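DM from R.C. (forwarded with permission)

"hey, sorry to bug you on a friday — could you get me a structure for this? deadline for the figure draft is monday and I only need the backbone to look sensible"
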Amino acid sequence: MAKTTKPQGGLTIASIDIENFKRIKCVQFAPKGKGLTTIGGKNRAGKTSNLTALQMGFSGGKYKPTDIHNDSGGPGDYAKVNITTTNGYKVRIFGRNGTIEVTDPDGMKGGITLFGDAVSSFATDLRPFIQANATEKYKILVAAMGIGDLLESIEAERKTAYTARTVANGIAAKADTVFKAAVKPDPDVEIPKEVDVVKLSTEITNMNQANNEISQQASAREKMLEELEAAKDKVADLEQALTGANTLMGQLQAKVDAWGALPDFFDGSPLQAQMDTANDTNKKRTKALKAQDIYDQALQANQEAQQGATDAQEALNEVLTKKNNAVTELGELPNDDITLEDGKMLYKGKEWDCVSGADEYIIASEIGLATNKGCNFVLADGLERMDEDEQAKYNAWGEKIGAQLIGTVVTGDPKKCNIFIEDGCVKDS
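My reply, with the result:
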């Protein structure tokens, strides 16, 4: 999120002069240049009105109250706010309608646009962020830093990668189950050589055909023998036809004699035995080859599935890394312990209910300053959330990095704050 800012040199507040603004009657003070300046007082004393005046002066109509004028003033006693910065800007709020006038170091007058985008609404009001849960903090942060669309796109990639990994893991699990169920063939068992059953089948067919022809010849011969016997009977019975019968007998005898000796039937049992052996051998071979093929396919499928699961996990990890680094890659996130995961903002991997008050304000201020280009102050309401030790830690952090921190705290003890407000005025501690 690249920004162009007008103020240079780390804009901070030099002095504040407020009259008749909300609950304030008259307040003048100069906050510390760095570290924490606490504005204290009891409830409804007017301490928060100081921050509201600053918020309105630097952010415009967004923080303008419905009625900015103090009820105790007379006619014409309109709210007046004068703010000066350490690098020469002057902010004035005046008149019935609370006109905001900004004068830059060169004397040019205008509205808050003279600040450019140096002062972010995030830094002028840490309360929404402080009070938000982890999910709301995530939304506020990405909106303030202008990376909402980027993270939404990355989140879509993450969901796609997560789905791909889930599918790949399912495929890998199934493939692993199939592979484990596959029986690896015994390498010592020799797969028999294939027997040519087609050749044997052709030989058997030819043999059967030859035997069939012999059978037909045997049947024909048997029929002729029957006819010969009939002729002999006819010769015996028909003396008157002896000559004709003898002639027929002679013819038939000649035909019978012409047959000669018939060949023996072929023995098909050896070929059939070979066929049975061949079929059994080929079945064993087919079974062995199928077992080897099933094992090889299961092995390959399992290897591919496991690699797919690994690739899917790596793809998901890349998306998650891309998402976690989305802000830091843009140079916007000031704290390495902040991570963005599953729509939540985490600190050191934990939810925000595990973060101390001082750390939460420090982190919020870091983000405020990161989005507050050209400006070096933040406004923090409700510092009573922190005890004195945590406030001291927050102050020490601000002094160390040179940041101006201005906040309010509910207290009746002037010694527990830098500026004590009572009945709308500063009370000397």
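R.C.: lifesaver. The chain has eleven helices and 13 strands.
me: no worries. The CA atoms of residues 195 and 399 lie 94 Å apart.
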